[in-house]
C-alpha cells in the first residue's frame, strides 16, 4: 500500500515538473520575435560600430574606480587619426580616475537601438543594468534619490548573472515626460547630481590646499559618483535638454546598415522555418 502511494506521489511530482517545463517552453515560444531575437551580445548589435565602441570605451573608462583595474588604453592608430571616420576611443579622466563626463547621453530616432545598446554595452562591461523610466516619476528629488541609491548599491539579489555586480543606471525616455509642472524632473535630477559632484570636487581641492594648517574634516553630504549613468532621449535638441547637453558626453545613434538588418532577418527566418522573399 505504502509503496503504491509512494509511486503515485513520485509520478505526480514528475507530472508537475513536466507540466512546468511545457509551460516555460510555451511562454518562451510566445515571445515576440523582436524580443526573442534581440541582441544579447555586444557582437550582435546592429547600431553603428563606431558608436558602439565609443560607448563601450566610456563605460570601460570607469574600470579603475569600479573594478580597481586599469581601464583599456585607446587604440593609438584610432586616437591619432583626425579624419571624420576615425574612431575616438580616448576618454579623459579626472583626478580621481573617473571619466570627466559622469553622464552619457544617447540620442537618436525611435527604434534605432539606443536602449538595446545601453543594456548590452553595460552588461558587456560587467555591470548589472538598473533601468529607471523618466516618465514613471516626474519629481526631481525622488528621481535623484533613486539614481544615487542605485549608484551606491551593489546588486546582491538572487544568484543569477547579475548577482554581486556593480550597477549601471540607465534612464530611459528622459525627453518623453517634458510636459506638466514636473515634466523636467529627470533632467533636474541629473543636473543636481552633477552639481553635487562639482561641489564635492571643489571642497576636496580646498581641503588639500588647507591641509597644512590643521588638516581636513570629513564633509557630510552625498558621496562621490562612482557608477556610470546613461540617459536616453529621442530629440537631442529639445530646449529642456540644453543644460544636460552641456555637462554630458553625447552620442548620436544612427540607423543600422540596411544590409546588416536584412542579413539578421534572413537568419531569423531560417531559424523559424519561414520563407522570405
Automatic annotation (TrEMBL):
Family designation: Belongs to the activator 1 small subunits family. CTF18 subfamily.
Q: By its UniProt entry, which Pfam families does this protein fall under?
A: AAA
| SUPFAM superfamilies cross-referenced by the UniProt entry | P-loop containing nucleoside triphosphate hydrolases
List residues of the AAA+ ATPase domain.
Answer: 100-257
- Report what the protein is called: Predicted protein
Q: Subcellular location, in the record's words?
A: Nucleus
Region spans: Disordered = 198-223
Could you tell me the keywords of this UniProt record? Nucleus
InterPro entries of this UniProt entry? AAA+_ATPase (IPR003593), ATPase_AAA_core (IPR003959), CTF18-RFC_complex (IPR053016), P-loop_NTPase (IPR027417)
Alphabetical list of PANTHER family matching this protein: P-LOOP CONTAINING NUCLEOSIDE TRIPHOSPHATE HYDROLASES SUPERFAMILY PROTEIN (PTHR46765:SF1)
Location, primary (coarse class): nucleus
Q: GO CC terms for this protein?
A: nucleus
MF terms in GO: ATP binding; ATP hydrolysis activity
